[in-house]
Amino acid sequence: MTIRNWPRVIALADMNAFFASIEQVRNPSLIGKPIGITNGIKGSCIITCSYEARSYGIHTGMRVKEARKLCPAFIQIPSNPILYTKISIGIMTILHEITPDIEVFSVDEAFLDMTHCKKIWDSPENIGKKIKEKVFSVSGVHCSVGISGDKTTAKYAAKLHRPNGLTIIHPWDAEDALKDVSVMELCGINRGIGIFLAKRGIFTCGEVKKMPIGILGQRFGNPGRRIW
């Protein structure tokens, strides 16, 4: 389907388990194994972990001791921030070949505004495939891509099919796609905002329509209005 009639075209590229994936690319013997990255070989807290480790219930922030209880085969890898930064820069640089309008959101995430490139990239599927190809070509790492008509929905879409997924939510389908989604699933809604909404009986994105925009705006300013 063409994107010519989309008001805006926003993609979010999310490098899956970025640090762990880099270590697996650098050392192929680690591919398919439950590994976790820590701050040094004696680090006790997991910075990130592979999807193989996640399948055991291991997650970011967990102690290595607890991870080994869940998975005796868990492999601890010391972080290499210089390497991770170098690869991140390479990824962000090559993404500029797709569009000049890029917002680096974190070391392993970037928003690509394709709105002014609609004549070049005719479909969201082609955009997603090209992003994934470019990322893999310079890093050997897979990424998940979400594409929609705004940043919030694109970021939500990117996490729906991990790892190495491509999810497209057309702008005119976004409201329906998000109506039953918990507000806490969206980027920018922290625990404080979540509690504020819950006290007013609002738990899903669709329920936010019950609240006038001025209430969120008065309490949280421009971020509140953007969330609404």
Description of the molecule:
The strands form 2 sheets. The chain has a 5-stranded mixed beta sheet with strand order 5-6-1-7-8. A 3-stranded mixed beta sheet has the order 3-2-4. The protein has 10 helices and 8 strands. 38% of the residues lie in helices and 16% in strands. The protein has 228 residues and is of the alpha/beta class.
Cα-atom radius of gyration: 19 Å
Q: What is the ordering of alpha helices and beta strands?
A: EHEEHHEHEEHEHEHHHH
Number of helices: 10
Number of strands: 8
Strand content bin: 15-25%
Calculate the mean pLDDT score and round it.
Answer: 94
| Shape field | globular
Task: Summarize the helices and strands and which ones pair or pack.
Elements: E1 10-15, H1 18-26, E2 35-38, E3 46-49, H2 51-54, H3 64-70, E4 75-78, H4 81-95, E5 102-106, E6 109-113, H5 124-139, E7 143-148, H6 151-158, E8 166-168, H7 174-178, H8 191-198, H9 213-220, H10 222-227
Parallel strand pairs: 2-4, 7-8
Antiparallel strand pairs: 1-6, 1-7, 2-3, 5-6
In short:
The protein has 228 residues and is α/β, with parallel strands linked by helices. The chain has helices spanning 18-26, 51-54, 64-70, 81-95, 124-139, 151-158, 174-178, 191-198, 213-220, 222-227, and strands at residues 10-15, 35-38, 46-49, 75-78, 102-106, 109-113, 143-148, 166-168. It is built from 10 helices and 8 strands.
